[in-house]
Design goal:
Blueprint: H1 4-14, E1 18-23, E2 28-31, H2 33-42, H3 55-64, H4 68-81, E3 88-93, E4 102-112, E5 115-124, H5 126-140, H6 150-167, E6 171-178, H7 181-188, H8 190-205, E7 213-219, E8 222-228, H9 232-248, E9 264-271, H10 279-295, E10 301-305
Length: 306
């Protein structure tokens, strides 16, 4: 039978988890084959020349560059070393240019010859995270138009509001109503109405491309666009372009009093959120402007800057 050390090494080298062991100062004293292979394939400094690497120092370097996961990892490892926690785990993204990847890091202490050491393992959890992401996206998406639903709109606006409060940035909201959509439904049938909503949803996607933007189905034939860190002037330019894009769809609506093809009315409001205000004030302002746009002939943008 092979020696116990050789057997143990062979076992650890067959494990797909990336495993290393560190001492109480953070120095790496052991890594398995999966750890080394990952470093070779990803140009990871912490995986190369591991015998001269201090894991905690590498985490601290990344933390100084703004890596939030590295900040949490360093704190978690130190909590285990200092016996604040019995163990620690962290799920984090590690995406490559070609694919999305997630890992779970676990930190577990052990003793050897009265000295304390710590096993750090990184397990690939990409398949599970992708499945969770798919379920989450389904809960956020309107089934007909394939854009955000009202529930996700509410959550996104709340988060964007807080961000703009913190960073003192403007926040714009547009509420879009398809002019005389009921006539379109009555004239051409509900299937044609659904196709119309799908096409408008596709157009809206092209006007909400940044992380701070969101287009959503607001309800029925109403849509909404959130534009974070966007002034009234820039928002107005975008919304006028959106109106033109909707007109360019040339969807028939022969009984409309505006023109014989689909048009829309937009209420636009921009304000600088702060702690004394609520996001409902922005919604109310955009809704008021939508009413004004419809009262004044439809097929245009009415706007307010507060």
């Amino acid at each position: 039978m092979m020696g116990s050390d050789k057997l143990l090494k062979s076992i650890l080298d067959t494990i797909t988890q990336h495993i290393c062991a560190i001492d109480k100062n953070g120095n790496i004293i052991y890594v398995n084959r999966s750890w080394i292979t990952f470093g070779e394939n990803n140009s990871s400094s912490i995986h190369k020349g591991w015998d001269k690497i201090n894991y905690l120092q590498e985490c601290d370097k990344s933390a100084l560059k703004g890596d939030k996961d590295a900040i949490m990892a360093a704190k978690g490892i130190r909590d285990v070393i200092n016996k604040v926690k019995d163990f620690y785990y962290l799920e984090y993204p590690c995406h490559s240019p070609n694919e999305k990847r997630w890992f779970m890091m676990r930190v577990t202490p052990f003793k050897l010859e009265e000295k304390e050491y710590y096993v750090i393992s990184h397990e690939i959890i990409t398949e599970r995270k992708l499945a969770e992401e798919k379920v989450l996206n389904l809960s956020r998406i309107d089934g007909l138009t394939d854009i955000a639903n009202r529930r996700y709109f509410d959550d996104f606006l709340e988060n964007e509001w807080r961000r703009c409060v913190r960073l003192k940035m403007p926040l714009s909201l547009a509420i879009i109503d398809l002019d005389h959509f009921k006539l379109l439904n009555d004239t051409y049938g509900h299937q044609a109405g659904d196709e119309c909503l799908k096409k408008v949803g596709s157009v809206l996607k092209t006007f909400a491309k940044r992380p701070a933007d969101l287009c959503a189905r607001y309800g029925g034939e109403e849509f909404a666009v959130i534009l974070g860190d966007t002034t009234l002037k820039n928002s107005l330019t975008l919304m006028n372009s959106l109106l033109d894009a909707i007109r360019q769809l040339k969807i028939p609506n022969k009984d409309s009093s505006v023109m014989p093809t689909l048009t829309a009315s937009i209420g636009l409001a921009t304000l600088y959120p702060h702690a004394c205000k609520e996001k409902e004030e922005l919604i109310a302002a955009a809704d008021k402007m939508l009413y004004r746009a419809k009262e004044n002939g439809r097929n245009h943008v009415a706007y307010e800057n507060k």
